[in-house]
Amino acid sequence: MNTVEQKKKKVLVALSGGVDSSVSAALLQEEGYEVHGAFIKTWSAPWLPCTWREERRDAMRVAAALHIPFYTIDLEKEYERDVVNYLVSEYRVGRTPNPDVMCNKYVKFGGFFGWAMEQGYDAVATGHYAQVLKNKDGIFEMHAGKDEKKDQTYFLWTLTQKQLAKTLFPVGGFEKRHVRELAEQFHLPTATKKDSQGVCFLGKVDMKDFLKHYIDEQEGKVLNTDGGEIGYHDGAVFLTLGQRHGFTITKKTPDTPPLYVYAKDVANNTVTVAPKGYMSTQNDTNKEIAFMGTNLIREGVEVTYARLRYNQPLFAVTVTFSEGGTGTAYLDVPQEFIPRGQSLVFYTDTECLGGAVIA
Question: Structural domain tally of the chain?
Answer without folding.
Answer: 3
